[in-house]
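Hi R.,

As promised on Friday, here is the backbone we talked about, encoded as structure tokens. Could you run it through your design pipeline when you get a chance and send me back a sequence?
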């Protein structure tokens, strides 16, 4: 790990911090970087900065100067006290004309930008709390931005986006604050600032991090490692949990199928010993288990099928079992504990405290963000120590979709048989020991408050906005009382919200999510009869009159006075509308999704487009007659027929070839309104009207 550090181009050790190992020579002296040793404090416009030197025309201040090998920035960062991360300050920043790292209102972010091609890359992460956290990011022109937190890849932005507002154009490398005059402070600390003029590999990042903190075991991406004993020996407990943690780590990469992997994880949950867990052991077990879950979710043959919801229901039950074990078995003699972390699977917290130390009216998990669970302090036992384990899953909700309402315990959903249910928010879980005292009555108090932001797919959003649909949102949880996970809303009620979020009240703790069911609005029988009658009578009258029109043209075609282009246009327009009306009435006899319905949808598209095209021809012809009175009757038959029949044919062929599934599938024999295919008709029609 220190060989990686030795290859750095710039290195500022700053303070000698206990638990963070500097790069020292054989005499034990700290070795500083090759350029700009040390830093000093400068004041600019009333703001205090730490100045690292000027890097004009350098890869450090201008990413465009970077070669294909890229660049890496690394430092340790923490806030000075537990409350600092809740302050709505502009936060601590490291600024140059090429990159910026900042913490702002509960979100840490790295921004990297090049001026020549006006590009910006941005990646967000959870900012540090009162514990030293290692932040490292790499940038390469072909790979984009990668942010590592505590040695593990946390977030990326491979593509970037066009951006023109760059802020400070100077080439100085600074640490300090900017923004509102009233918020110019840094309630935090930095250490070990390092720059490599190349992008480190993930293995090198891990090597440096483990060497810097003196811990040689696999660690979480955001476990506050400063809570562990930072010695040069591995921090593995010498108790009954050690073989399980070791096995979880060693088995990574050996998983091949979902069934065997799930079986292995369930065996782990069953085999946990009923022994007290120390703080370090609880952290090691939690992180090792979540890493195994991460491997499970990355399996290439994790097929999305009818059993997917059941498989992930079992997976959540297994995670709950392990988390419940942690809450029940944390060492009773250990001191208060408050840890927040994240992995690719979930944000998590492990908390042990005495209720009297809770100075707030509610305990909230997670402490930041729009999705959370809130427990009123009055629900906690006043004299007993309480242990809380919370999980906010990042991606598991995607696997709970197309749930049959008859397979749930949600009576309201079961009333709409055949209309599937999907999870439309993060899945959030919390375990508390001992159980809080909650009201049995949902109109009483205290109750759990759950707020969840909706994560709608484009299809769900389109369905929800469709005025012909009714959206039902349910506050639900996975009920394992019968051995398998069944969605239920017993003991929960949706108090408020809209299409973007929901607020629920519940009288129990478990894992929660918002489920969405979209049901088409059904017309009353009398309305259906009325609309059907209007359609048939109106179309029949139209067909009758159009037929008379065409017959009239045919009978009088021998009269020379009507042998002009206007009557040809009239006849073609009448013919297009006539055929379209006949096809429309015929389409009512076929069910959506059938081959005849698809064929009729394509023909309807063509003939209705042709009707608009012939109206365009008629408009152009009348215009030419008024503007160009003499010679306006010269033959333009070829052009007119090309526009009237040729253009609609080209549009229909392209549309049907590229999106055949959009014809005759949803509710009727016409173009789909959900995936944008309807624009193949609406756009040409609007063009004709505009002309």
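Update: got your reply. Pasting your designed sequence below so it's all in one thread:
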């Amino acid at each position: 790990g220190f060989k990686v550090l030795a290859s750095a181009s710039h290195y500022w050790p700053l303070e000698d911090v206990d638990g963070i190992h500097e790069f020292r020579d054989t005499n034990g002296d700290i070795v500083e970087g090759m350029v700009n040793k040390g830093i000093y404090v400068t004041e600019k416009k009333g703001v205090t900065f730490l100045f690292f030197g000027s890097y004009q025309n350098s890869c450090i201040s201008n990413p465009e100067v970077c070669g294909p090998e890229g660049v890496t920035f690394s430092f340790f960062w923490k806030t000075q006290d537990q409350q600092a991360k809740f302050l709505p300050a502009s936060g601590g920043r490291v600024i140059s004309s090429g990159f910026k790292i900042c913490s702002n209102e509960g979100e840490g972010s790295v921004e990297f930008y090049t001026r020549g091609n006006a590009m910006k890359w941005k990646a967000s992460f959870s900012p540090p709390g009162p514990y030293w956290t290692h932040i490292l990011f790499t940038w390469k022109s072909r790979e984009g931005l990668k942010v590592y937190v505590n040695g593990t890849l946390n977030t990326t932005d491979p593509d970037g986006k066009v951006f023109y507002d760059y802020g400070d154009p100077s080439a100085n490398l600074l640490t300090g604050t900017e923004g509102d005059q009233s918020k110019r402070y840094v309630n935090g600390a930095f250490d070990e600032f390092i720059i490599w003029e190349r992008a480190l590999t993930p293995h090198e990042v891990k090597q440096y991090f483990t060497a810097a903190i003196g811990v040689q075991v696999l660690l979480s991406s955001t476990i506050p490692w400063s809570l562990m004993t930072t010695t040069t020996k591995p921090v593995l407990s010498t108790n009954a949990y050690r073989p399980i943690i070791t096995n979880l780590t060693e088995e990574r990469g050996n998983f091949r199928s979902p069934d065997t992997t799930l079986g292995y994880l369930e065996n782990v949950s069953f085999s946990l010993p009923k022994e007290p867990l120390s703080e370090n052991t609880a952290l090691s077990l939690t992180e090792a288990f979540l890493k195994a879950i991460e491997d499970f979710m990355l399996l290439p043959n994790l097929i999305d099928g009818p059993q997917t919801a059941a498989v992930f229901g079992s997976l959540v039950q297994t995670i709950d079992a392990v988390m419940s074990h942690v809450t029940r078995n944390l060492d009773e003699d250990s001191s208060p504990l408050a840890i927040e972390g994240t992995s690719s699977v979930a944000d998590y917290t492990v908390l042990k405290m005495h209720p009297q130390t809770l100075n707030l009216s509610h305990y909230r998990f997670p402490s930041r963000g729009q999705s959370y669970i809130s427990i009123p302090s009055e629900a906690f036992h006043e004299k007993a120590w309480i242990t809380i384990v919370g999980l906010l899953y990042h991606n598991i909700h995607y696997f709970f979709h197309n749930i049959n309402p008859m397979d749930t315990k949600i009576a309201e959903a079961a009333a709409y048989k055949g209309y599937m249910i999907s999870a439309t928010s993060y899945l959030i879980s919390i375990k508390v020991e001992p159980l809080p005292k909650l009201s049995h009555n949902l109109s009483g108090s205290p109750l759990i408050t759950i707020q969840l932001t909706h994560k709608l797919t484009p299809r769900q959003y389109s369905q929800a906005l469709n005025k012909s649909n009714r959206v039902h949102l349910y506050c639900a949880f996975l009920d394992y009382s019968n051995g398998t996970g069944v969605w239920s809303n017993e003991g929960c009620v949706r108090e408020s919200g809209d299409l973007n979020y929901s607020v629920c009240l519940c009288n129990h703790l478990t894992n929660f999510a918002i489920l969405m069911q979209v049901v088409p609005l059904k017309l009353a029988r009398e309305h259906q009869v009325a609309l059907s009658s209007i359609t048939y009578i109106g179309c029949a009258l139209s067909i009758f009159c159009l037929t008379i029109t065409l017959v009239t043209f045919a009978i009088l075609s021998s009269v020379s006075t009507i042998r002009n282009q206007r009557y040809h246009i009239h006849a073609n327009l009448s013919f297009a509308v006539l055929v379209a009306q006949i096809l429309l009435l015929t389409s009512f006899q076929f069910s959506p999704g059938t081959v005849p319905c698809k064929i009729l949808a394509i023909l309807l598209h063509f003939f209705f487009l042709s009707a608009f095209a012939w109206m365009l021809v008629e408009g152009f012809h009348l215009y030419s007659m008024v503007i160009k009175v003499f010679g306006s009757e010269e033959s333009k038959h070829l052009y007119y027929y090309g526009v009237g029949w040729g253009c609609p044919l080209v549009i229909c062929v392209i549309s049907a070839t590229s999106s055949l599934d959009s014809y005759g599938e949803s509710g009727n024999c016409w173009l789909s309104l959900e995936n944008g295919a309807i624009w193949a008709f609406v756009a040409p029609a609007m063009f004709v009207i505009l002309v």
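One thing I noticed while checking it: The chain has three domains: 1-213, 259-511, 525-690.

Thanks again,
M.
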